[in-house]
Amino acid sequence: MTIANYCLIVACLMPVLCAALAKSRGFGKRRRDGGFDNHDPRGWLTRQSGWQARANAAQANSFESLPLFIAGVLAAQQMQHAQSRIDLLAIAFIVTRVVYVALYIADQPSLRSLAWGVGTALSVALFFG
To answer: Residue 86 belongs to what H/E stretch?
Structure first.
């Protein structure tokens, strides 16, 4: 398995990590005390604010960024581009997405948008090897 394939796994797990962050303040508390409501998890998340709401938004965006990245890696490998370049672009994408999530949670919209743009460009770059 290539480094880029491992990056695919990491990218697929990033939304799960963001969801865990969004829900983290509610873990261990009873529902009636504002704790996480597993009977209505999406409704509970929509009632969150601040960094928890931003972590949930980062979760949604992490899902949204997946198709282009997955397609880029698979297309690059199918077209037999240099694997070292594919791996480098995939690692850069993961690093950029981690930075993106951190900036989202930290409420840094301009830098977050820049990181989003870089991540999208890296996914597109995979198609061109």
So the answer is: helix 83-105
